[in-house]
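ok trying again, last paste got cut off:
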Amino acid sequence: MKKGNIEQVGGDAVPILNTLGPMGNMDARSIARSLSELERRVVRHVDSRKPVSEIARAAGVSEVEAMRGLQYLSNKGVVVLTKEEKIVTTHTGKGKAYLEKPLPERRILDALKSGALSMDEIQNIVTPEELSGVLGLLKKYGLVRFENGKLHITEKGRNFVFPWEHKYGSPGELDEESYRILNRRGLVTRERLTTWFAEPTEMWAEVVNHLQDGLIDRITPELLRSGEWRKGDFRAYDVVSPVPKRYYGKPQPYYEFLRRVRERLYALGFQEEEPGEIVIPMFWNSDALFMPQDHPASDIHDIYFVSAPKTHADIPPEWAQLMEKVKEVHERAWGYKWSREKSSRLVLRSHATALSAFLLAQKPKIPGKYFTISRVFRPDEFDYKHLLEFNQLDGVVLSEDISFRDLLGILRDFAKEFAGTDRVRFKAGYFPFTEPSVELFVKHPEKGWIEIGGAGMFREELLEPFGIDVPVIAWGLGIGRFAMMELGIQDIREFYSKKLGYLRTAKRIWRV
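nice, full thing came through this time. structure:
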């Protein structure tokens, strides 16, 4: 036995989910039974072609709600939605002020009819901003002249009427020249006005005729407890017709990638270093890494120097002792006079390896594995693979039996884990703080071979001041370029995009 959408099964009556097929296969009665409460409220008022705003007022809903309901009805073939667009001229907020008072050019001309005025006197009539906007206009039309330091009205100006004065209250009637003048002054503007209309189809009248009030849209706890559902008539549900796409919250793609990189490194037994300060002395950025003070990378074109304060004034005692050891090694190995003043100069951290130097000063555990993902800053060309500030994945491994071969294996694993590729190349490189040194390249499907970063074995001269006598492998990688591979993007600048289209459709990361 059936009663509406209640089907008798055994001894109990239970509601069933009445799903509908494609709208083209449904009759008007079935469509009427499928309408939601919002659709039923608005459909009654589409008896002729009407603006959506008018339908919304008649149905007692907002225009947004009415539009949503009408879109659903349009999908079901009950109404047709059309739009009309036109360009309208309107006053700006600034322009509306002159609907209640004369325009500044009129106020100046009227005041000058009583006699010449100095510029100070003029500024009692109009504001400096108003004056700058119309003084050139008055001179262009030949309505005023300067004489003996005062502004005088010409004969032409005494009876002159600006072309836009009488039409200012109806901006849509302005001629093109008047519009351009007033638009430049920020008084009027043009905007595209879109009006949506809904009109009934042939099916509309029959659908409205079969509308039912009191259909149950959803089952609530109260409905179940009271038993009223046994007597009710349930709305049919359409699970086929297209509906507006919904975008739900999700992590920002790049920061989700960085989080998963961290999780993977934790799983491999790495410990994360503290992110440290962005502004650091050159000592940590270069000197402690065995980079000589006259090295080209220490030049102002490769590092952002801080203008105020220029130097690190407070040097802790433990730093002073380490600086003396670094000075000794620099002067012995590089053969130049080391400068404490240059070493104290403040810079924006140019590479995360500076944090690895600071880590070595903290007496890390041996054996030990450490990493950091930190923001660094470099003057660089700005293109699809370069940013002026970016994140760098830096790390070190300290162990008595670690080797350069182990480093190459780790870099290869990183490329596979974080970029999803085994297309890897190694190229001999040079860095003042590592020997031997290597550069890592991976194959991007669109851009070809991309350099990811550098790595190597920390030199003995670097480790000596820290009192470390075991091999240390180190790397500094542009983690953003790994993310380009994994996220499938062509331009590294998209990581910081505010475009909703990209953020809504960006690829989710599952592998890392």
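cool. Residues 175 and 452 are 60 Å apart (CA to CA). The longest helix spans residues 317-334.
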